[in-house]
Design the sequence.
């Protein structure tokens, strides 16, 4: 059957409308998809940004908590230190300071005699008087736990009467204070091994500073803390628990006339020895 002309026009028009509808529908659908994709990307970006911001705030909070914890620990240590210092200043009770300091003090023995020393670094460097080692062929150290340690001589300063020793292992060191800050009349303690009595403690005050020694240097603290043979090389300690001198000698048989090389000269001697022998500064 042959289609008449107006029938063809109707069919053609309908086809055109269908095609146009499909094109428009495709455009609208594509627009919706594009918009959804844009919205999805924006939402993902916001989520990512929110996650990053949340993580950043969590990191800040964690750091803040860690800093607070460190501050509390530091405050606790500071308070304990201040309490010990206050106790030592007001009641002449050095027990808390002695309890800490004595663990860094050692007995230095040779085949001809003995003296005292103290640990200045965690890895076992020890300071003593050079004359403690004089004439000895063998030397060893007894720590606070009475453990015996083979010992090597790193070097010595004859003028300042300082020797630097080394033992193997990890230890509790004692800090050196600034001897320029030492005041006449302040309380001090001396720790040593007088007459073989290990880890004995004597108390006194600083009687004078910058006293002249036999080496011609005005580098000595005068103290009335009791010093006897065996105290040589031991630390003279202030109420902060710092070494302000190394007990060196006393005048003849006189009482209350002990002398300790000031801590700043100890640092000078130790760093001179360590630079020469190890190419480093220990203090």
Sequence:
């Amino acid at each position: 059957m042959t289609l008449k002309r107006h029938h063809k026009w109707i069919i053609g028009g309908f086809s055109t409308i269908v095609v146009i509808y499909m094109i428009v529908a495709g455009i609208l659908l594509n627009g919706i998809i594009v918009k959804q994709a844009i919205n999805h990307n924006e939402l993902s970006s916001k989520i990512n940004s929110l996650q990053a911001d949340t993580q950043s705030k969590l990191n800040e909070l964690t750091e803040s908590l860690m800093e607070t914890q460190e501050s509390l620990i530091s405050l606790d240590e500071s308070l304990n230190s201040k309490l010990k210092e206050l106790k030592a200043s007001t009641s002449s009770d050095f027990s808390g300071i002695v309890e800490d300091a004595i663990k860094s003090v050692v007995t230095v023995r040779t085949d001809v005699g003995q003296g005292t020393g103290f640990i200045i670094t965690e890895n076992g460097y020890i300071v003593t008087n050079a004359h403690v080692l004089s004439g000895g062929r063998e030397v060893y150290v007894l720590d606070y736990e009475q453990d015996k340690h083979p010992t090597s001589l790193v070097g010595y300063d004859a003028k300042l009467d300082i020797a630097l020793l080394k033992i193997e292992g990890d230890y509790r060191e004692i800090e050196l204070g600034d001897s320029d800050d030492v005041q006449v009349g302040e309380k001090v303690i001396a720790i040593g091994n007088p007459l073989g009595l290990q880890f004995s403690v004597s108390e006194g005050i600083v009687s004078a500073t910058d006293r002249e020694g036999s080496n011609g240097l005005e580098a000595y603290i005068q103290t009335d803390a009791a010093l006897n043979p065996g105290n040589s090389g031991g630390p003279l300690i202030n109420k902060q628990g710092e070494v302000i001198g190394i007990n060196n000698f006393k005048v003849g048989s006189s009482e209350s006339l002990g002398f300790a090389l000031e801590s700043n000269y100890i640092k000078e001697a130790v760093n001179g020895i360590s630079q020469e022998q190890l190419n480093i500064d220990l203090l």
About this structure: The chain has three domains: 46-89, 98-172, 179-270. Helices lie at 5-91, 95-101, 263-278.
